[in-house]
Amino acid sequence: MTETPQRNRPENPDSATGDDGRKSPLTKRGGGDPATRGRTTIADGVVEKIAGMAARDVLGVHAMGSGLSRTFGAVRDRVPGGGKSVTRGVKAEVGESQTALDLEIVVDYGVSIADVARDVRENVISAVERMTGLEVVEVNIAVSDVKLPDEEGEEHSEPRLQ
Q1: Which of 5, 29, 48, 100 is most buried, with most CB under 10 Å away?
Q2: Residues 87 and 124 sit within 8 Å (Cβ to Cβ)
Q3: What is the C-alpha separation between 122 and 29, in angstroms, rounded?
Q4: Rounded to two decimals, what is the model's pTM?
Q5: Beta-carbon count within 10 A of 101 CB
Q6: What is the pLDDT of residue 32?
């Protein structure tokens, strides 16, 4: 005589009965809140993109990054498939529940740097915390340049020699 192995199937909660033969109330499977059934990790680059977009939305921010990174970025932007780097000028350190950010910005001439920095900090903290659920413990802002009205933009500059 051959025995066939029985499969262990999860019990259908709709058909579960108690000792008295009556159906027992439905119970959640897996034991608890779905939010506690796994782990979510967020890459540094994700937080950097969110922070970069939020910083660029602030009035008075002309560009992100140092002169050197903007120069390399302008070259990369011209390469097919290179695309604009949203993370230029942004560095994030992400832990399990907290993040810290360093931003390097260029401001427009005539704006209050203190006001722009405050607005960038508020916008970045709001966006990152809302989208990721991480606590932003600090946003350090370095102003690396001021864009003067008579300066040509790096993307519109023409060659000096013809």
Answers
A1: 48
A2: no
A3: 41
A4: 0.67
A5: 27
A6: 76
